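Recall from the previous lesson that a structure prediction takes nothing but the amino acid sequence as input. Here we apply that procedure to ABC transporter ATP-binding protein from Alloacidobacterium dinghuense. The sequence below is the only information supplied.
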Amino acid sequence: MGSLLELERLSIAFNGRLAVDNLTLSIAQGEVLGLVGESGSGKSVTALAILRLLDSAAQATGLIRFDGRDLLSLPTEAMRRARGREISMIFQEPMTALNPVMPVGAQIAEAIRAHHPEQSRRQVREAVIEAMQAVALPEPERRMNDYPHQFSGGQRQRILIAMAIVNRPRLLIADEPTTALDVTVQAQILDLLADLRERYSLAMLFISHDLAVVSQVADRVAVMRHGLLLEQGSRKNIFQSPQHAYTRSLLGAIPTLQTDIHEPLATLPSALGASAGELREYASGHWVRS
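The prediction returns the following tokens.
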């Protein structure tokens, strides 16, 4: 299966300081790639670069190829058309991503009209209701006129997902979509994303610092630190046979039912993974920075 998204030697710098260093990744149609790392590792910056939403201080070099087109050299208007229609993003904090003084139905409708100005008001309304139903929001005909503060945290995240999938994108970027949610609601959102992936053949870049969450959704996993890709492989490779010391430390820092509550959790040494050795193929499809 060919790649839908390819990053080749992508580097992103802010005022000469590298935030992402020579990153190469790919995602096939319908595949979920989990991008893991602590805060400041370059995960979210990479997502914003794919959507061409970095601020003017950032310099991006290398290739970001989507369905054969290099997004970094795409004309501004063509990129605007692709953003939200072919590639969508879910942000981690719904209350800052949603407009607090605008009904949620109108916000979903805005996402439709931006890419389908030819649609009638009735068509847009039907699409809004369909999107709200797709993410299991109750009574969409009535609740589309409610405001974000009238919904729970999990429901607000569902509204953001409805906005992201209403135009049937091929790639969904989910940036820490469950971080602000409690464990029960988190599980519901993960189930919803799995269902939407199956229903719409969505490819997904799932960004998280939480390896436990990534283990539930990703087909392949890439581990970053300090802007460097340290390890990449199948979910089985990463969780059952991690090779990089940093990946092993991340896994060791996750509490399990077997964890001794009298012992402190593993911590991550600050220098771990800071060296820029070469990525080598440890086993088929399993790459590790030496």
